[in-house]
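Summary for the funding panel

The consortium committed to producing paired sequence-structure records for every protein in the target list. Below we show the first two records in order, beginning with the earlier of the two.
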Amino acid sequence: MKKILLILLTAFLAVSCGCSQKEVTEIDYSDTYVENQDFQYNFCDKDTSRFIIQKCDDGYYFKFDSFLYFVDEKNMSVNPLCNKSDCLHDKETTVIKQTECTAYLSESILNSDFFYYNDHIYSFNDESYVEEESNEWIILNSIYKTDADGTNKEKVFTIDKEIKTWFIHRNIIYYTCAENNLVIGYDLSSNKAETVLDLDSFGLFNTTLDNMLAYGNNLYFGISGFESEEEFNKMVAGEDISPYEFYYVLNIIDNTSYEISSSLSGSIIVFEGFENDCFLYSEADYDNKNSPKTLYSVKNKAVKTQLDFKYENLFERYYSDNRFIYVKKAETIDDLENNIFEVYDKNNKQVAKIDFPDGFANNFYLGDNNYLFYFEGTNKGERLYYLSKENLAKGDTNLNLLFESKNT
């Protein structure tokens, strides 16, 4: 009888922990978003580029502290991604016990992102250590892969460099390192890495990669830099000099590329999302503080189209998914802390107004066709909320608490 109960319990844990397996063996190179193989841009916070949620076939994964949880989309129930019947998961009182939990990922503060790709979970782990004899700090950063239920963990690769940012798109892990200006692509089929982009090739001084995205068959790199060291030093000395900012778009099929930039003085290019397979961005003349931003759409190698949308203020942010347009209202930079969003349908008719919890450290995630998500971080703990888009269409902006983690 005990054996039967154990088998039943194991079976229950298997189906309640993680998504079903539907592994893709061939990449679909359609120039649009493809589920289960593409960078999940709608689950990335635009302002912080932070990932804490990933969509899978029948639910979601999210990471709080060092643990990974699975959300069943049918009832939005939450369970740690662990199938061990005797494990207390995030309630374990010792570090050793916590690390033995299947749901445990990593304690890394600098790089806490994880990604769901091709029915596997990919995570980062900092394995750096101090060498005893030389007392030298040895840097080792690794990417790991597990099955959708958190089991069968295996190392993908390890490098002796500090990984700054990374994501997965169409069978390639793209990452940057702290010690150089290179973007590297690691092919999951051939297990080989090669340089995708060298920031020094643009001939700018103090070149910085501000953002890295992917959609369809294109990679999008937000880049900034100064025309010369002299110009940079003038900026450091206090002169009103802004870096040159642009997006570099690289096609992964034929390696053709183009730049998206602004001709406005003192302008920056702000990524606003993807819509109708186009790259959306705004630009504004920051030398003229009273001038609102302009929203543009780009497709087919920099054919720019001005969209019929009017910003009221310089600091407003634009978000768009398949159902709604969301505008984060702000007259000044301080107003961004208020997190008030006006919601419009695709005919630009306002359907709701969402007053999210206040805070600069909070994150807004567009999510999928069913739910949007909102992360709230305070000195007392963290909360993750969700909001039904079916309810939102009716004007219902009630937030549901999905998970809460309290600081001790």
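The next record, for a separate protein in the list, is shown here:
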Amino acid sequence: MLNYPGISMKKIYAVILIAALLCTTACSLKNLVPEDARSQPYSEVEEPWTSKDDINYNDPNVYKKYAAGFVKLLDERDEEGIKKMFSKGLLLMEDTEEELDSLLKNFKGNVKDTTYLSGSLGARGYAQWSKTEPIACYDSRFFIYTDEETYYVDFGMCAVDESSPDGRDSVGITFLYVMTLDKACNMKRDVKDKTEDSKEYLNVLTFSDGTTKEVKCKTVGTSNCCIDTEFGSGEGYTVLNLTDVWSKNEVFRLTGTKDDISLDKIKKLDYTDGKAAAEFFLAHEEYVEPNDRRHVYNITGSDKKVMVVIGEDDDTGEKMVTYVRIVDIMKLYSVQDKVIIYGEKKK
């Protein structure tokens, strides 16, 4: 029996238990929970905040609770309630009324859930915890799933800003973008006419079909205020997370293919010959259109997919398979069983 003078057995057992829990967390749970453990989907947020009066900037879950409050009011089509969540700076933007009206008219279905709403540390854009001039601003992107559509949301909010004369006018929702997946897919955003002397500028959105839109923006306090909604049809698009970071969900266009590859072939392929492996996969039609170097294929008789990273050899420029992983797209990212067939853990 272990015996350490001056140390009780209860303390020893407590240390052993803590060490075991830490090992379990580090070894087996690292990829099963979000990197910020406070992040949750909308359905799990117990106290959504639906008004600026609810904001407590010392709360560690400011962003998540405020984003959940917006989702709740949007689901209820509560126009006046949403306005109470807007910062004064956003309310005074000339496009706000029109864009909010568009949002409420075009948002379809009843909310089923969202991808993860970030805990405040994951969403923090700018913070200064001075006792006299506290600032806490947050922004993150997530997706809302309804029983009719899926929507991309880029959501920024300020919890407190005592650093400038108009800082208090930025408390609440500062910027909001809501789009159907066809509009969000490969959408790019560029800043135009922004100078040190001017608080007003433009965000130029470029969509996958080549069309553009200029969104009016204004700096209020340390925050950027703007709003835009874009509606089409998300049919033929999907949201996937092909990374090892829970928050990096992306929009992909479906190909509609019926082509598939057997799991047995995927496992038995000789990946030491990266060129031949690339040729094998590229001979099949993909589940979604390629994004960067990532290629996704159907697996025969399964809802799971195989994600293949195909890069180029530095010397020859030949295409080479560098990473292969099974992706269970039917499960929330936090509980996916990530089976790596080939390559390093993180890509």
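Regarding this second record: The first strand starts at residue 111 and ends at 114. The CA atoms of residues 9 and 15 lie 10 Å apart.
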